[in-house]
Amino acid sequence: MASLSLLAAVGEVGGDFFKERTSDTLPCQAKPNEVFCFDWAKDNIDRFGTPTVQHFELVVISVLLGFALAFALALFAHRQTWLRPPLLAATGVLYTIPSLAFFFLLLPLTGLGKNTAIIALAAYTLQIIYRNTMLGLDNVSGAVKDAAKGMGLTDRQILWRIELPLAIPEIVAGLRIAVVSTVAIATLAVFIGGGGLGTQIYGSGNLTFPTSIFIALAIVMVMALVLDAGLLAVQRLTTPWRRARAS
Amino acid sequence: MNDFQVPLAGFGGALEFIFSPQSSNVTGGKSVGGLEQSLDLALKQLEVTGLAMAVALIIALPLGLYLGHKGKGEQVLVGVANAGRAIPELALIALVAALIGVGLVPVTLALAVLGIPPILTNAYVGVRQVDAATVDAARGMGMSESAIIRKVELPLAVPTVMGGIRSSTIAILATATIAPLAGVVTLGDYIINEGIYGLDGRIAGAILVAVLALSLEGILALLQRRLTSDGLKLKTV
Description:
The complex is a heterodimer. By secondary structure, chain A is an all-alpha fold. Chain A contains 11 helices and 2 strands; from the N terminus they run αααααααααββαα. In chain A, 74% of the residues lie in helices and 2% in strands. The longest helix of chain A has 31 residues, at 49-79. Chain B is built from 10 helices and 2 strands; from the N terminus they run αββααααααααα.
């Protein structure tokens, strides 16, 4: 059999191509009412690799950044209680501004690209993580802290060895909400040139076709599920005493 | 100093775009932007947000209150809440546009779908949190089950229920920003169609959407204070 390039050279491929367009054997992704084309999906699954990796990076970096900042703020506000209302209000403002608007508010400062997307996504996670960390620390019973103090632990030791470990379930609950929401919202990064799976939904200024959107949607949902399950596993591993009590 | 002048110039152009119409090189001499168009787009965004909220409230609030009252369906609600968070709004709007069609009705329904989970779960949690002894007392006084929901559980659950309504409103308003992709021309049009509105338009759109979201959130926070009974406020201070 002749190679594809040889056929192309004698006009065989091009000829067929144009013939196809005029008959009713249109490729299925070009038919307006086709919900899902398995043929296209089979041949083009490769093109989702790089966007998936980019998407994963956007989410992980944003949530880690948001976590580092929110965690530090929560530890600070844990002792300096007067800081709580202003911090809640400030993170609330960042949470309320729609992500797409946030991207373009940052545009004059940080330009197009994934850094702008990461800053906006991280800002979005602050309130969720901050609030849950505060909640976890506040839920530690006074009796436990008194016992620790009675055993001669310093305030710092109480924080790191008693309060924070006991707050892990609430902290992880916050992280799980943050991760799942960020996986979904990171699709909007396409508008600011941040890449990710949004590029397979809205590519080069237009919506793509349903097959591509469905595949992107499926990858987003699976990524959310996997990251969520991963965080749940981390929580199980870091709080062995809860399992002991349960069994 | 020069480093700062460049970004500030970006915002200056955007503010000018909001208040006075600018010429655009693709609309054939027709000018874009300006206060009138900005208000039009903002009203369109509020309209579709309001409609979607109404649909979401009618479905989710009674259902959440009822399930909370009965204490049924917790597992299903946890699933609904998680799935709701994981739906990428871009994919939702794109699929609606591709498979159902463009225009106000399909977009309103899609946005309502996004708004249902927070209202549903918060209504459920709010009612579940009401002290069982209070409900028993109401029952002992001869209140019907529906009166218990309306006169006892709902007033006590107001802060939680309003929390759900607020997150839902913000999620819907945020998603209404990309509604121009499905033919409902909101403020997001400034952001999405750079070809028509230019860079100033994009930043102007971002400013307007942010202001709209923060104002709406502020109004709802005030409403929550008004609706919360004084007895509950004392407890939280």
